Amino acid sequence: xxxxxxxxxxxxxxxxxxxxxxxxxxxxxxxxxxxxxxxxxxxxxxxxxxxxxxxxxxxxxxxxxxxxxxxxxxxxxxxxxxxxxxxxxxxxxxxxxxxxxxxxxxxxxxxxxxxxxxxxxxxxxxxxxxxxxxxxxxxxxxxxxxxxxxxxxxxxxxxxxxxxxxxxxxxxxxxxxxxxxxxxxxxxxxxxxxxxxxxxxxxxxxxxxxxxxxxxxxxxxxxxxxxxxxxxxxxxxxxxxxxxxxxxxxxxxxxxxxxxxxxxxxxxxxxxxxxxxxxxxxxxxxxxxxxxxxxxxxxxxxxxxxxxxxxxxxxxxxxxxxxxxxxxxxxxxxxxxxxxxxxxxxxxxxxxxxxxxxxxxxxxxxxxxxxxxxxxxxxxxxxxxxxxxxxxxxxxxxxxxxxxxxxxxxxxxxxxxxxxxxxxxxxxxxxxxxxxxxxxxxxxxxxxxxxxxxxxxxxxxxxxxxx
Length: 467
Hints:
The chain has twelve helices and 22 strands. It has helices at residues 33-51, 62-73, 153-160, 227-230, 237-253, 269-278, 341-359, 367-386, 396-410, 415-429, 434-450, 452-462, and strands at 3-7, 13-17, 20-22, 102-103, 110-111, 114-119, 122-124, 142-146, 149-151, 182-183, 190-191, 217-218, 224-225, 233-234, 264-267, 291-294, 298-305, 308-310, 313-315, 318-324, 332-336, 339-340. GO terms for molecular function: metal ion binding.
């Protein structure tokens, strides 16, 4: 058996195999040196012709058959093995010993007669030369080698070549012959770069791209929601009220009680955008606004009854126009509908902090300071939900209020919902915007160093975070 190789993808070795024929020969020491020399020359010539073949190798070449026939017909012919250095395994004895045979590295039995293979300095019966991945014998001309393991080329590609998690095809190589793909920084979802521009849907909550075998639900306003986020989605104002009151309790547990009864409404995307336009004050918002602490008197269309599933979208949504009267510094809190419970709660915690600051007389704060401290409260609430033993839990009674609602409604948070909560915390911590991202990190560092109450007192006096 002779093996030669060339480098393959992912550091594998693509080898070409030649099958040889081995016969048990009688012990005969009467061969002359001249006969050995002639046979050695014939075998070397056969090797040279094999290496010049342009289209690979055959399992048994014509020369191999002639050599085997010669060995059968002439028991006094050379007893040398049918290969020559440098192709012979380094440990194989060149002088033939009739009392010891090659051992198969697959079944560990002697290879006495018949076909055999040589690879990686050892030998195999053809039926024992197996693919490590599928366990089927390798019969192709070429195979892949990784370490000491052999594979069919197709099996090795299945193992090592990344597949797109959107279209489920092998991710293609770029012009330089390299495998290029995109990967979500939190979910590690790998996908072809083309899916960023081919109208593939992206979940408006968790940001994962829609897989071809897991369709997303359309919310009817250009947003789509994956089925995992859909499981805990809050769809109307009545459905959101218990969550809203539990977060107010969370504030009260930190001695930040909001005395005024600020209305909370779940609204459609367009209603939220209209409310933003109606605000007279310079309010700072994210590129995709999902919540609003309203200060002006407006008529807002809220969602009165949750929509029902219809095909791949939601139908039957019922809205109600509501006149909001300003009785204090805060008119209402608005949150976009259709988001999972933990994201809805994070938005409510953020907007309630805006309300608390206005009701307590915090004025003229820069976007970095106001949005930063609001993001800290949002992050703290998420942390209390995802990691209940967190140091940021305000009190046992507050924790009970929030988690009781969740448990009674859904039977407790699932592992998937907890993972969503971790993702929303990751979003807050790694936001790239100056106000929401930079502001959060500055506020978070101040709260960790001085505590929340001291940080708020410093903001009231100086309008900035303590250093």
